Amino acid sequence: MKAKVKWVDGALMLGESGSGHVVVMDGPEEHGGRNLGVRPMEMLLLGMGGCTEFDVIHILRKSRQDVRFCEVEIEAERADTEPRVFTRIHVHFRVAGKALTEKAVGRAVSLSAEKYCSASIMLGETATITHDFELLELD
């Protein structure tokens, strides 16, 4: 896996993934940015959210669960002093499907957190990570 980040101006950077996708990253105005893209530390949380959500959907589908909706909300706190690593992260899943059970969703969330989500496990080296979920009704 490869990635490239190119500085453009001020705090503006373009990140290019090995698969050829580009994302804009920028900083706040007080650090020379213009707020044109996500912050690099926000990108870490987004990556973790995508990684764990992919796992949960994959695990549910593999166990023949009819998942139709999944959304992850993440809240994080950072250390007050440098390096300002994440110290606490809470991941909340909102999941819906046909005949989904709390047991199946709970198992998928646990497996992602404890075994499969590389991003969560890596960030867990500096942060306390908690997870919960809610099972939603389909309309």
TrEMBL record:
Pfam families: OsmC. This is Redox protein OsmC/Ohr family. It comes from Thiolapillus brandeum.
